[in-house]
Amino acid sequence: MRLSSGGDIFRDRPLTISFDGRDLGGFEGDTLASILVANGVRVCARSIYAGRPRGLMSSGSEEANVFVQVVSGAGEPMVRATEIEAYDGLVTESLASKGRLLDLPDTSRYDKRFIHVETLVVGGGRSGVAAAAEAARAGGRVLLVHDRATIARGEGVESVVGMGGLTILTRTTATGLHEHGYVVAVERRTDHLAVPPETWSRQRLWNIRANEIVLATGAHERPIAFAGNDVPGVMLAASAVDYVTRFGVRPGRRAVVFGCHDGVVDAARALAEAGVEIARVVDARPWAADEVKQGTEEGSLDVRAGVVIGTASLPDGTLSGAVIQARDGSVETVACDLLAVSGGWNPALQLLTHTGGRTRWADEAAAFVPSQRPQHVRVVGKASGEFAAALRPEPLFCVDGPGSDPADIFLDLQRDATLADLRRAVAAGMRSVEHVKRFTTISTAADQGRSSSVLTVGVLCQELGVPMTEGVTTTYRPPYTPLTFALLAGRDRGYLADPERVSPIQDWHVAHGAAFEDVGQWKRPWYFPAYDGESLHDAVARECAATRSSVGMMDASTLGKIEMYGPDVGEFLDRIYTNLMSTLAVGKVRYGVMAAVDGMVLDDGTVARLSDNRWILTTTTGNAAKVLDWLEEWLQTEWPDLDVRCTSVTEHWATVAVVGPRSREVVAAIAPGLDVSNEAFGFMEWRDAMVGDCAARVMRISFSGELAFEVNVDGWRGQALWEVIYEAGQPYGITPYGTETMHVLRAEKGYPIMGQDTDGTVIPQDLGMSWVVSKKKPDFVGKRSYSRADAAREGRKQLVGLIPSDGSSPLMEGAQLVETGVDLTRVPVPMVGHVTSAYDSVSLGSPFALALLADGANRHGEELQAVDELVGTRVRVTSPVPYDPEGARRDGN
Amino acid sequence: MNEPERLPNLPEFLWADAEPKSAYDVIIIGGGGHGLATAYYLAKNHGITNVAVLERGWLGGGNMARNTTIIRSNYLWDESAAIYEHSLKLWEGLEDDLGCEVLFSQRGVLNLAHNLGDVREAKRRVNANQLNGVDAEWLTTEEVRKLVPILNASDDVRYPVWGATFQPRAGIAKHDWVAWGYARGAHAMGVDIVQGCEVLDFVTDGNRVVGVETNRGRINAGRTALCAAGHSSGLAAKLGVRLPVQSHPLQALVSELLDQVLDTVVMSNTVHVYVSQAHKGELVMGAGIDSYIGYGQRGSFPVIEHQMAAAIELFPIFARAHVLRTWAGIVDVCPDASPIVGHLPLDNAFINCGWGTGGFKATPGVGWVYADTIAHDRPHELGEPFALTRFEHGSLIDEHGAAAVAH
Ligand SMILES: Cc1cc2nc3c(=O)[nH]c(=O)nc-3n(C[C@H](O)[C@H](O)[C@H](O)COP(=O)(O)OP(=O)(O)OC[C@H]3O[C@@H](n4cnc5c(N)ncnc54)[C@H](O)[C@@H]3O)c2cc1C
Description:
Number of strands of chain A: 48
Strand content of chain B: 25-35%
Radius of gyration of chain B: 21 Å
Number of helices of chain B: 10
CATH class of the largest domain in chain A: Alpha Beta
Shape of chain B: globular
Largest sheet of chain A: 8 strands, mixed
Distance between the termini of chain B: 32 Å
Bound molecules: flavin-adenine dinucleotide
Oligomer: heterodimer
Largest interface: A-B, 95 and 90 residues
Number of helices of chain A: 18
Distance between the termini of chain A: 97 Å
Structural class of chain B: alpha/beta
């Protein structure tokens, strides 16, 4: 019922919300919960398993009963009714402790901010505000975060709004305390608005780094468990008062107030002042006495020593009375519609324990208080637990009164878990609270165990007959309050989920209808259909034929490029590559393989020496970052004495490969000043050249076996270069091609793709590349592993070629190789290798594959079956270099 | 709307803690799933019951309590497929064997492919699985869509779904219940379960391990078997053995309970998502591994942020779900991402570790194999390829480079 005055609500701004289809009136400043109370809605939820009626048991983040789905606005599957600020048009549905995901697109935006401060104060209650004021006066940046709409103000509280150096974030909850003064907080920016400004993000994730963190997080009231303690009308005492003072609503007409500390009488007085008839105050402390205490002007308070052992309820399940056992054992039922309960206070120390802080049970406060604080963390106010001692509490967790059914004594309302469940756990042998919680599922629900966690420790100690000081709280885990997935994702959604990288020539590719392939983060042209609907197969056949017979061009800009500088680069590369690099002359290019410490092929590419101290190396497209990390790791951790700098220059350069017997003419045309003759510009050499007015570095490298040039220019001139080459190539029918054709061309030459034809189990020798493994170098990464027995073993898997025996059956990548004659139905079927790459080869006139095959080097000419989806295809093993094995095409004609 | 049902009841009695005796035939260090399963099979298969499981904290409170419970056997290499498939077969009979529920649910596991490379590796693995007698299928995008309607398998995503491998017999189980089920079985056969007992050092006689020093005193042992997961390298170092193992934090998280939206386990390596909806209704997700080494049981927050971005990319309907709780375990990873099972280079001393991000599923299988190894003081056929000595001769079993599927 709404009182005629009082509360922090705006009575001149009425609003209407919907709860389970009912329209309810309230005011701005209300929460959904206070509107439910104001409208006398007492049954607000059903319990998860037993289906028992449940009502609000709190006014804040302790709420364990009433969670709702918000259907209006941004939509929420499951939120505490006590934490929803009402707005006109809010639509909610009750839940039975299980959320419901809206199957509508989430159109809200979420963003993130990063901030550094000297002092972070968490909690804007009295002590938090005081701490923030003090820190701000001392100078430096101070951030105060507070989870409600307004920080503490009024009598005795310094007004800090507008104070220099102080930033205040309201509706902001610190949710995680991480290492090194790192705190994560969520700011709810629009959830309380009927019509949020379109440009606002819904929520914002704050990443805060602070020198000092002050936890002024307050305390949560602790319930007491007794039979029927889940009946609507049973509420935490301070919450009952909170409804009166904060919202001007009365949570009941006639109340019994029950607890075990001095604060209970204060709560009774506050309720009485709001017009609640106080039928009885029950003080459970052993030394309590029956007495009449000063109440309000209208009447006094009837305080009795005793405990509540049960509840009575109306047919609708709501509270009609409290069953009270007096000190002398007599039992009476006192009629009431509100049973306000307080078992003491739990300092809110969740954040403290996120990063190694600890708590201990303090008898005098009847609470877990901070015992070990993480570095830079201070706890003030109620969170420190000091206030609780002043209330002279006597801990009481659970009243198992005469005739009570332990299955009616609820320890975790949200999980429907009772004293009976806890006893079953103990009877099963469980002693640790961690086990008991897991056995009973207590404290695992959406309310994050706010009301059940310490209570359960208490009840467990009681059951086991051990003192609370032996009880241990669980380590709380972040987040302190549930965080929306989408908030954590922030802007990393849709096409921003992972940055899409494109070459500087991308616009041309798109304009010319290229099909794309994802290679790492890159979008690479896969093939270029010559007309709408040309198939991959046809396009690749066309591209291959054109390249082998005349000239093709490919965008190779995505290859990783790392520029290396320093006097020790040669030495460093000698240690990193399996082959010798330091002897490379300026002007030359060398192919190289990097191995991991286990000797397995890691990556490959080319190394060019630009000057004495300047080198550039290429990596495979997908591995560029990994290789740079790899180089840096060795440089920084193992060989800091080497004077070498590595710089990623992948995006600085655009690279166009001009490939095929006519490539020389094309390059001559675009770079008239460059002598492209074989004598002047040999294979594996590079030259500076001018393409028009653009400086270019041209390399004679081939990944196809054909005469080929790779032209490198400044990234931003990439597309211009591409167009110039395309123009110059027209007389020869120059044909742009993508990754698929590149793969076919290189496979026909038996050039492996690292990561496709290798898989972390392949040493260079397996690829027929013993020549790339230096015998002379004293050491290099991986060398030691080649002396292990397994590296020298006969029968290792080696790279081979495969041709279908019938000359036409398609071969499938990923097919497993099995000896002929083996029955595929008798598992396990021994496998001797697998197909790593498979293509239709125009040059060979048949399908063709590369494979890793046990003892493959010695099995050329033999037959096997390549098994895909349990179907075997006969294949003949060939050399992995079926095309131009002599390398006659390298220098063109 | 489906009415929530209570989980089935746990047995009336699980186990009672024991005071450590002065000597045992076998001491198992570490009361996680592996240690408990090993004790169970030592007693059950080999009649060795004078056994203690020593656990420094609370039973099953390490990675056993922290994993995302994905169970599958569709590993690439023969050696892996053999031991994981043995394990899966044991899972299939585990509830009967233990006489209690472990909520093993064969709801199938999907491994999504997002690019040509993924497809190639996936098909390779499916083919290998089929020939090894492990159930495996390749599903097209259309089939994936049917199986998991809430998955965004449209073209309009950063990394479209090109298809997936599917193992129908794979699934999840309830990790705590598995640990407790084994503890119960072992305890009933006479095994001592000792919690709050930390092994600090070993007692050796020449090259022979004869016991352990603990915070509760010295305990002699005929045989000593490590099952300490993330703490293995530190323990082995006390014996002078440098294990090729690195310990990293690995995080996971759950949402609130939600009405059922997901009936299978979905894993994507490229997009970094591992998700299932557990029995009660919460979404359970594994996040990425932190690349630094640590024992802190705390991971870094950006990993979680990244994980959520990936999750809603694949499952837009998850956008409004909430992260209720995050946590981390310490995973022990070998260079080849395969475990170590077998002898230490000392007499009467055994090692089981290196299961990294994926050892929950192996719990029954490795318990079986390890118990056999300890009982007979010789490698079990399924464990032999995973001997520590493989790092000397180089015959690695690289599931990392090859299949690159975690968990
Ligand atoms: C976040 C996460 C997700 C995962 N997801 C999956 C998954 O989906 N599927 C899967 O198959 N696997 C998964 N795993 C891996 C799996 O959890 C582990 O591989 C497996 O649990 C390890 O075996 P264990 O159960 O014996 O380890 P643990 O439970 O860690 O047991 C080791 C025990 O040894 C104890 N111990 C350590 N040192 C000592 C000492 N000195 N004295 C006494 N006791 C000691 C520890 O306290 C601990 O209880 C995941 C792991 C993590 C962390």
